[in-house]
Amino acid sequence: MNKTPLIAPSLLSADFCNLERDIRLLNRSNCDWYHLDVMDGVFVPNISFGFPVMEAMARVATKPLDVHLMIVEPEKFVPQVKALGAHVMNVHQEATTHLHRLLGQIRREGMLSGVTLNPSTSLTTIEDILEEADVVMLMSVNPGFAGQRFIPHTIEKVRRLREMIDRRNLNTLIEVDGGVSRANAAQLVEAGADVLVAGSAVFKALDPLQEINILKEC
Ligand code: DX5
Ligand code: ZN
């Protein structure tokens, strides 16, 4: 029996004309975090939403916010993400030069420090900062769009990251983002994932609340 993962539905797949309705639906669900995908059209080839929209979401949300910044120079926005009341600030390893400093700044602001790796980025790039990260998020799609196909190689990458973390006796959480569904959730958790992000799997389901339960009980 797998341990129970935290489930973080991605609001990128919500109905933007009915954001309040969709967030209130999640408030009633067994999900754990709300995953907010910020895109700048530079780091990724798409633009999603920014702080004014997230502030509105935060007013309705009753669970912790997991902010995933797919933007260049994320270090500029630590105070603004803090002001949102975010629980996790996830920045891409590929998007910032002084990752060690940035993860420290995020922690000092009282948030969990998250570092995210694209599918093509090796785990060796975070070997020297693993102690500074509360969360390591592995992208299982190339970031920029919801509804993409899961890259299977991620399962083995989760396993290697789990070994890295356990070898050092750290409590770092492993989060996986992109194409996560009931078809791969169990394998990801078995490999060592703690947090599963799911956009389309939740919002395209006939019964999103039930789908969240299925992912949790994988
Ligand atoms: C991709 C985003 C993901 C995405 C997940 O760039 O970071 O969080 O919204 O959506 P699904 O689960 O549909 O792949
Ligand atoms: Zn994301």
Describe the 3D structure.
This protein is α/β, with parallel strands linked by helices. The chain has a single domain, classed as Aldolase class I (TIM Barrel). It has 8 helices and 8 strands, in the order E-H-E-H-E-H-E-H-E-E-H-E-H-E-H-H. Helix 3 (78-84) links the parallel strand 3 (65-70) and strand 4. The longest helix is centred in the C-terminal third of the chain and has 15 residues, at 153-167. It is globular, with a radius of gyration of 16 Å. It binds D-xylitol-5-phosphate (DX5) and zinc ion. Zinc ion binds next to strand 2. D-xylitol-5-phosphate is lined by residues 10, 12-13, 35, 37, 68, 141, 143-148, 177-180, 197-201.
CATH superfamily: Aldolase class I
The SSE string, one letter per element, is EHEHEHEHEEHEHEHH
**What is the overall number of helices?**
8
Low-confidence stretches: none
CATH class: Alpha Beta
